[in-house]
Amino acid sequence: MVSMSTAKSEIIKKYQQHDTDTASPQVQIALLTSRLVSLNDHFAVNKKDHHSRQGLIKMVGQRRRLLNYLHKTNIAGYKELIKDLGIRR
Questions:
Q1: Which of 9, 47, 57, 67 is 20 to 30 A from residue 24's alpha carbon, by CA?
Q2: Whole-angstrom Cα distance, residue 69 to residue 49?
Q3: How distant, in Å, are the alpha carbons of 38, 50, 55, 87 from that of 46?
Q4: pLDDT given for residue 4 in this prediction
Q5: What is the pLDDT of residues 25-37, one digit of tens each?
Q6: Mind spelling out the 3-state secondary structure of the chain?
């Protein structure tokens, strides 16, 4: 099993725009998507964890806002990112 910090570093390396980039919309969306996938696995086992579900809903909203921003500013990057991450829209 890969640790969270290692997985996070790999995601940042894959989606960064330049060497020191850690906060571009592409990186943030990829990190949020990774966290959302792991939370969905958590909810498959813990169906009554409503407190964490509230955090999941907030993260989905944050990712949606970042996707809207990326769509407005860089449509080619947006299309490439949603195809690569498998986000439907």
A1: 57
A2: 31
A3: 12, 9, 14, 24
A4: 75
A5: 999 999 999 999 9
A6: CCCHHHHHHHHHHHHCCCCCCCCCHHHHHHHHHHHHHHHHHHHHHCCCCHHHHHHHHHHHHHHHHHHHHHHHHCHHHHHHHHHHHCCCC
